[in-house]
Sequence to fold (243 residues):
Amino acid sequence: TCKSQRAMGKHAVLRPGWDCHGLPIELAVARQMREECPEDMSVAELKRRSLEYALSWVEIQAEEFRKMGVLAAYHERYLTCDNQYEASTVRVFGEMVQAGLVHRMKKTTPWCRGCATSLATAEMEYSKRVDPSLLVLFPLVNPPALPHLPPDQQVSLCVFTTTPWTLPLNRAVAVHPDGTYALVHTDRFGWMVVAWPLQAYPIPHLTLTLTLTQALQAEVKVRLGLGASEPAGVFPSAGLAQC
Fold:
């Protein structure tokens, strides 16, 4: 931003800053402490050495920026470990609380068991792995009056997922507002509601359509025990509104 503004003839000063907090710093220091003095791993010592480690890189990186010709006000740099910076952060957070912009709610966050702390999503790296896709049945406690459903019959919503690790925190089943669904019956799973047809699921707000390949369609039908059977009834998603 500063560079583009300078190109337009404006006096735009770049004030560099360094983030002196974070799990990568603590992990590097903890690894070094285990090698040097494994018996001295107190929290206070870890914090002190983490600060020293972070500050040691400030001058090194600033000098590297100068050598690359980065024009900046290095004498006015800011560090997130400065008391003034931390105080301004707390002050702004307090203003956000007073303005009603901060709410205590539930949110799924990555967690590291080894470090016993939450992780920043932007700093995570994933190794390649293959997980099984699952077909999950969610029994309806108060099933709506679906067409062609015999009375006093249990019916379930059938969900296909390629992210099985999300199931423990699942709280609801999403239904497409403009989608079409079908009531089907198999000897193995009984009565089920599935998206219909199986091959396409339009997502209007993303201007795209999720499409199942013919091979995957055949696999889903085999796993559900549908075969070539036709659904007992087809209806819009509005029929599931009262589930």
